[in-house]
Amino acid sequence: MDLLTRAFSGSDILRGVIFVAIVDANTRHLRPSDPVARSFSATRDSVPDEMRRPISVHALALDLTLPYETTRRHVNALIEQGLAERVESGILVRAELLNNDIVAASHRKNVENLHALFSDLRDGGFNFS
Q1: 103 and 68 in contact (C-beta within 8 Å)?
Q2: Are 95 and 46 a contacting pair, CB within 8 Å?
């Protein structure tokens, strides 16, 4: 999580978690069994923007079980920092950004761990609000 926090210029860890959740949501529709999706993970290339799907702030808040206003505030800060972009149908993290060394390293190390952490916390009855 240290790498993730540093990637956001000293921002709090929740902002980093929200960033990773946006990246995950943008590519969640790609199945590991899909040969195209496998080719990106095998080469460590980012999924191209045209294959990414934006997520609404509301859906993101529901995914993370965070209050909408908290999620909106952090998403707006990510947009102001140039780490996310608001497009017609939601929030998107561009592939170009993920090629940043710090962001790419933190993302690769943490995305799987965050999935496991959120799953374990939810299974244990933890409420994020």
Answers
A1: no
A2: yes
Nearest to 1 by CA among 11, 19, 13, 18: 13
Whole-angstrom distance, CA of residue 66 vs CA of residue 115 = 16
How many C-alpha atoms does 46 have within 13 Å on its Cβ side? Answer: 20
Angstrom distance (rounded) from CA 29 to CA 55? 11
72-84 burial, b at 16+ Cβ within 10 Å, e below that, comes to: eebbebbeeeebb
pLDDT in tens, 39-83: 565 444 578 888 899 999 999 999 999 999 999 999 999 999 888
How many residues belong to the chain? 129
Share of the chain above pLDDT 70, in %: 69
User: Comparing C-alpha atoms, which of 6, 29, 32 is closest to residue 19?
Assistant: 6
pTM: 0.69
Please state the φ and ψ torsions of residue 28, each to the nearest 5 degrees. Answer: -60, -30
